Amino acid sequence: MTATARARRIIWIRRGVQTLVLLLFLVLLAANRPANGAAPGAPVSTFFDLDPLLMITSWLSSNTLAGISLLGAVTIVVTLILGRVFCGWFCPFGTLHNAVGSLRRQFGRVRPRTSGFSVWQRAKYLVVIALLVMAVFGVQWAGVLDPFALLYRSLALTVLPALDVTVSAVSNAVYLGDPHLGGLHLRDVTEPFYRWWQERVTATEIRVFTGTDVVFLVFVAALVLNLVRNRFWCRYVCPLGGLLGLVSRRPLLRLTSDPSACNQCQKCTMACPAAAQPEKPDEWLATECFGCWNCVAACDRQGLDFRWVEPWRRTSSGSVDVGKRRALASVAAGVGAVAMARITPASQAATYEPSLIRPPGARAEPDFLARCVKCGMCMQTCPSGGLQPTWTEAGLEGLWSPVLVPAIGWCEFECHACGQVCPTGAIEPLPLDEKKQVKIGLAVIDTTRCLPYAYGRECIVCEEHCPVPDKAITFVLEEAVQRDGSTRTLKFPRVDPDRCTGCGICETKCPFRDRAAIRVTSAGEARHPDNQPLLTPTGGGYGDPYGD
Amino acid sequence: MSCPSRRDFIRTSALIGGGLLLTDAAALRRSALADPMAAQLAIARWEESALATADLEVAATRLTEAAIDGLGGMTRFVSKGDVVWIKPNIGWNRRPELAANTNPNVVSTLTRLCLDAGAKEVKVGDHPCHPARQCYRNSGIEGRVEAVGGRMVYLDSKRFRDMKIGGEFLESWPLYVEIVEADLVINVPVLKHHGLTRLSMAMKNYMGVIGGNRGSWHQNMEACLPDITGFMKPRLTVIDAVRVLLRHGPQGGDPDDVEVRGIVAAGTDVVALDALGAELMGRDPRSIRTVAAAEARGLGTMDFRSLDPVERVLS
Prior knowledge:
The complex is a heterodimer of chains A (548) and B (315). By secondary structure, chain A is mainly alpha-helical. Among the domains of chain A are: 3-142 and 229-308, no CATH class; 151-216, no CATH class. Chain A is built from 25 helices and 10 strands. Chain A has helices at residues 3-31, 46-49, 52-62, 72-82, 85-90, 92-101, 104-107, 112-115, 123-136, 142-145, 147-177, 187-201, 213-224, 232-237, 239-246, 267-271, 294-298, 324-342, 365-371, 377-381, 417-421, 432-435, 451-455, 461-465, 505-509, and strands spanning 180-181, 184-185, 253-257, 304-308, 387-389, 402-404, 442-445, 473-481, 487-495, 518-521. Helices cover 36% and strands 21% of the residues of chain B. Chain B contains 11 helices and 12 strands. In chain B, the strands form 2 sheets. In chain B, strands 1, 2, 3, 4, 7, 8, 9, 10, 11 and 12 form a 10-stranded mixed β-sheet that branches. In chain B, α9 packs across α11. The termini of chain B are far apart. Chain A binds chain B through residues 34, 36-37, 168-169, 172, 175-176, 195, 198-199, 203-206, 383-384, 412-415, 451, 457-461, 463-471, 475, 477, 491, 509-511, 513, and chain B through 1, 93-94, 129-134, 137-138, 154, 156-159, 177, 194-196, 213, 215-216, 218-221, 248, 250-254, 257.
């Protein structure tokens, strides 16, 4: 078999692998739907476990390997042997880029000029250097650009809700309108599908997320850029690609060429999604190559092939020169970013954001931010839909990290799923009984709105929903004077700060729907010894329950 | 408000049960024997001395069968080809032992009886306070109901429609179309404490068919509950008092707040059933404002003894 024919076969295998991995990613995404409060049965965080960028940055920023998967090392080892096949064969975000990029043929934009190497490809190495430097100083921002975190976040917070809203709207329209042809009802088709969709893909309640416009725009922009340059994201931006490029300078499997066969047709160049210079036999760029085999298949003259080469042999002089000055500038940028993150009152513990209610089991804020990779897994699994991505509440450092917004949904008493699915241990996987005890905030009654206080009307909704078995909201019976001077005995709710866990269901269910008459504030959260308004015998609030 | 102590509760329950047996039992049995299809109330009770050792799953099933049998069987209410909606209380993400939701075996037994009576389809659903799937599953109801061929339905917030209630207070309110359109709605509450109405029983259970801002109903419960009950025109109500929640209702959560009672009552008069429930909880029905208001509205009688209840004692 010729090299070309073999390459064509390998490419089909690659496409199969890419499709399967992308499907697996989507299946695991759907499997992370709200379950019965426990962790989903499937290994939903597997992709994140395999991600060496998140592994290394989490380790650097949290200063410990505890709770961090070491499977990322497998990816490193594979890359040392085969080069960046992770990008060409495995990465589901890469596969999406691949699919969009293949549309370029329709637009007739495949030219050598846009397919050849560009010095801008070193940008991703500068990105990864900056991210690593930030991580050293405890700022975990890799998740903002990490392909798994970015893809997961985009799908879970924008694409899936958009599909859910659409499926629900169509199903409800068909159900209510009941179009039929004789005895054939369209809803006999849509209803079972809708049921399956709610059971297996999303949830029984539609869950949507705040401030996700930017998440979506970044996602769409990353995909559309494929029309400018094929695999734009993977070539220029991706920090994981950059990290893998750093370890694939001399893989064992390398592109080798027969210079005598080359007639400079540039077909290989145009077939290369990575701009790895397959057309220059001595300057092939191992750090850029995705190992996709397109170039081998494109060569009519059997001039190219991948071969095993001993690691000590130098077969190509091609390399991407990041440059010492640029690398230094990148280090400086990373340090600067850390400083920017640290000159906020919140990060100097001068202020506490009342709305920053973190999920139960979340570590103390600095430690939490050092680990959270903003992937959205906790938000995706939260059954009430209350876990939302932050925008400015946690500063730029905490962008898109999870915050409980009780106006949208509460922390379900019989559930500890967020801590179970968190891939980096930013939210600790507490046993359910322990989680039920964790204070994430404190309910505060607004007597200018609360119906018995403000209007002399009966209402017990907050008390009725309080999930603490012996009730953190109790009543004080008092007489309320009515307009005509008569009195009426009413139940006035009162919060017991010792029992309240700040779960927020009182705020979600309060009849005041615009701004509830009982609201949760972050004060009293167990993870912050200093954010304690109430006197306790230990003086330091509740201490650090996770104490390292 | 003070809760009944356990001793009070047991004493009252014993008095009611015993009273029913001793004073009316003969007459009741006669009347029921005469025409079971005319019985308006049937009370099935597990022998108190056998309660401690009873398998509650078996007990709940047999009590439900006995109560329905006391009314003349399910064919009295279900015609061949009917679509039945069973409306249990599945309001909370709580295990069956915590008595915040209707006993799963009571619900599944009713489902089976309806299907046996010729129902085309038996749908079971509620509009829970917690996420529906968690409630359906952790309450144990979904598993039992599906095992006997019933269908669990998730209520969709887009499928509520404003309907004319024509009540004394409520003019219109969003209701769940699929429930209202069913040929028969069986209301199956669990007997439990409630912070506002004091007790949550059959009429309170109708809050699961409404949409809109449900919380706002608490401002005028004694008008809203009779209004929705009048609109729903209850034909068959089954009260589950296999386990009852004495305190910290309607949600509970502490096993110590739960008392095993081993009683299932079924009837056609929702007010009588709520009055019976009140007495079982050691309260004078007249002190429960929603129940008293419903009687004043002509929705039924609080004097459930006047209905010649059929009594079944199992063990």
